[in-house]
Amino acid sequence: MADISPYxxxxxxxxxxIALRWGLYxxxxxxxxxxxxxxxxxxxxxxxxxxxxxTGDLISLPREVTFDAWRTAWSxxxxxxxxxxxxPYFWNSMLxxxxxxxxxxxxxxxxxxxxxxWNFRGANIIFSLMLFGCFIPFQVVxxxxxxxxxxxxxxxxxxxxxxxxxxYGLGFTTLFFRNYYVSIPSELTKAAKVDGAGxxxxxxxxxxxxxxxxxxxxxxWQFTQIWNDFLFGVSFSQAGTQPVTVALNNIVNSTTGxxxxxxxxxxxxxxxxxxxxxxxxxxxxxxxxxxxxxVKG
Amino acid sequence: xxxxxxxxxxxxxxxxxxxxxxxxxxxxxxYWTSGGEAKSVAVLxxxxxxxxxxxxxxxxxxxxxxxxxxxxxxxVLSGNAPTAVQLKGPxxxxxxxxxxxxxxxxxxxxxxxxxxxxxxxAGHMKCEGTWCAAPVNVHRVDWIWANAEVLKANDIAMPTxxxxxxxxxxxxQAAGIIPLAHGGQSxxxxxxxxxxxxxxxxxxxxxxxxxxxxxxxxxxxxxxAVFDQMRxxxxxxxxxxxxxxxxxxxxxxxxxEAAFQIMGDWAKGEFMAAGKVPGEDFLCMSTPGEGFxxxxxxxxxxxxxxxxxxxGQDLLAKLVVGKNFQEVFNxxxxxxxxxxxxxxxxxDSCAILSSEDMAASSAGGSLLPSYAHGMxxxxxxxxxxTDVVTAHFNSDMSSADAVQQLATAVANSM
Amino acid sequence: xxxxxxxxxxxxVLAPSFIAVLIFVYxxxxxxxxxxxxxxxxxPKYEIEGFIQYDRLFASPRWDTAFTNLFIFxxxxxxxAMILGLLLAILLxxxxxxxxxxxxxxxxxxxxxxxxxxxxxxxxxxxxxxxEATVRGWGYENFTFDWLVNPDMAIYTIVIAAIWxxxxxxxxxxxxxxxxxxxxxxxxxxVDGIPTWRVYTAIIIPSMAPIFLSAxxxxxxxxxxxxxxxxxxxxxxxxxxxxLPATYMYAMAFSRGxxxxxxxxxxxxxxxxxxxxxxxxxxxxxxxxx
Lengths: 297, 414, 290
Known about the structure:
The complex is a heterotrimer of chains A (297), B (414) and C (290).
Chain A: H1 14-46, H2 50-55, H3 68-75, H4 87-117, H5 123-132, H6 138-152, H7 158-181, H8 186-194, H9 199-210, H10 212-228, H11 231-235, H12 244-252, H13 261-294
Helix pairs in contact in A: 1-13, 3-13, 4-7, 4-10, 4-12, 5-7, 7-10, 10-13, 12-13
Chain B: H1 2-19, E1 25-30, H2 35-50, E2 54-59, H3 66-77, E3 84-87, H4 90-97, H5 105-110, H6 113-116, H7 119-124, E4 126-127, E5 130-131, E6 133-135, E7 137-140, E8 143-147, H8 148-153, H9 162-174, E9 178-180, H10 186-210, H11 215-218, H12 221-234, H13 246-254, E10 258-262, H14 266-273, E11 282-286, E12 292-295, E13 298-301, H15 307-321, H16 323-333, E14 336-337, H17 349-364, E15 367-369, H18 379-393, H19 399-412
Parallel strand pairs in B: 1-2, 1-3, 9-10, 12-15
Antiparallel strand pairs in B: 3-13, 4-5, 6-13, 7-12, 7-14, 8-10, 8-11
Chain C: H1 2-35, H2 52-59, H3 61-92, H4 99-107, H5 114-125, H6 131-137, H7 154-179, H8 183-191, H9 196-207, H10 209-225, H11 228-233, H12 245-255, H13 259-289
Helix pairs in contact in C: 1-13, 2-13, 3-7, 3-10, 4-7, 7-10, 8-9, 10-13, 12-13
């Protein structure tokens, strides 16, 4: 990957080149500080005791590292009368996010495959209608969606939440796959058809194996969207199905009592761990997947 | 609308009831998620369980109940309303008009609520003559809290007029103390505003302005004076006040960084939790002027089907207004019981003062609903007023402009 | 029969998604349009009353602020995030040894929701607690950074936090673009002795036009939907100085029980979206057909 930058092996004098390199690293380092600052503040605060937070500096290192806040946030923090911390909500989020990501990715792949390779009249209109759906502000859909979920009998349930996330994820997943498949020559499909392969067989044995990079991109995108969603989570859940963002909000936005900043911060980091992990582990493939053509219109 | 909702609910209830265990059940949507509040809810839950009930907790914190109200709308529209919901003020009647509230008159009459609740508070709990909500407490909004030591060191008495307040504040400012601890969130701006308005306009003027929305009162010279006083007060807060939570402002009074705070009696809970003693460490007094602004928390029961849930609603309503819960809950929360027949032996001096003032104002006709806390007006109207108040307080708008905008905004919100 | 099935399989595969989008996007937009013409308060009602909600909307100074903020915020956010993203991508593309780590650092904010980072940002930007206090603590007594509490400047703190969150993603898009530029062309240019910066401005950047478009769409989608950000950082304050249409609409619908008003503001938002997205869709389709 990194070998496509031959033009950086520039000609100027050796000393100038070294100075330039140093400047470059310095600049990149400064940006890194800017991006890391909030996370740094959060982690440091979560490791301090409340007394130290009250007296100390925001950015300073903890004098005494304590993991109490983490323990409380995970399994002891109270929201309402239950003091179970984030743990139960964490699993709710998993139960929502994993099927939600899987279904919307699969549907997006199929849709993208149809639109790019089985072009029939009107396919592009359908595609543009779906794309426009990406831009609808979610506040608009809350009330009518509540009504629909009620009619479908899945209001307040985890399948209901999965359904909502799949519907509003479809636009982006279809866009990703369509733009990826559009660069695959249609001769491939034609040849396969001549060989007698059917619609699903071509998808399954030709397109899907080619799709790993874009699947990574889509999964990252969808997982982030679903995991971090608060608005749908708070509106379409009931006791027992609330996702982790709602629990976090309940912990952080308590209106009375001593504000336990360390617990708030630990809870916030815990809520963010799965998405962080996904980005750190799969980040490399993310850029690679985008490189593979998905971003080209 | 109603038939649709009940139809969907009954379908769900039938599905649920075949599997459910017998006994009262309640799913309770509320936004009491922290500290003393959560403890108080736990008391209720325990009583509920002791009477054989099954309590499902549905807390949604944030935005003074905004998030909970979002969840509530979605639940009602989807035909899956919670059994009981923390609701208050005219919102109760608004929900009733949508045809989604249950009638709890049977419980109210069996337990003689009419005899033990003050008339004006009972009025908020009734919808077209039937009982539709159960009151939990009475918060007083127009309190001024002070750090006793700071006042003593600067030789200042608790102010009884706004001029005295301004003089005291100037003295404190000269001594390097922040005169007024305040958090720049719109509801806090509104809280200070209505206390000032009550003091300057008087009880009748307040009622005309914020209950009847009388245009002449809204644009009167008195209202201009109210905005002038708000401008003066703006000079008494520290530069960092924007977005500060109210309890952090209370902490500033506690540790002597600031002298006064104007806030409802939930602030007392903060002082008490920090081990401060009323009358010694901190002082409480009503804000300058006559009258009593109340903020009553209550539970409304939503129309649900299924005997277990209905039993749950009846039981919950009975317990909420019961003497024991009213005492325990309000000891935790800093407010006073809505019932007038609860002994106040265990309550502190501020609560006793509040109770006496409430009785006196009730007799004198100056017991008024708080506009800032959604007791006086529909959400859209109260919100329109708050928009102007907060825009004025956070800019250099003149009082005359503010009054004009107030009249326009109110007219526009109808 | 089998022939028919074979011919129509693609349509049948697409049909469920298409129907879902018709109902859950276009049906709901129609619903919102309808409700915006009623006097709905706490719950939607369906008796048409005319354009009264739009009259109210345009008479509201708060809506004026929110609508103006959308443009200030949207333009600054999109332009700066794009420039920063491109800059970071170009810098990272210079055979940087620690590229993997740096890329993750620039990208991770996208993984966090603003409910998570809002509190940290609030602290950092708060003059009494954060950056200003810290720098003053270092001895620079005159250092001032009070945008968060200044009604005229608070909207820019929202821009900063939004850029922090999204510019890494834009960087990833551009980095991917840089990596797929044809190496042969660049080599040829260098053989001709064209300096590196000219290679970028004259060859590489122009060839990434589709990526600018993609980045623009992703960013404008984020700008229009910005909601958590404002709620977590300023709550719309000081006053209502940092209100955006999305927060205005939410406040009307859910804290004020004024659903008709919320619906009318939603329709105006949808129209703004429409004017941005339709040209994109047009070019998107042309590039496919042509």
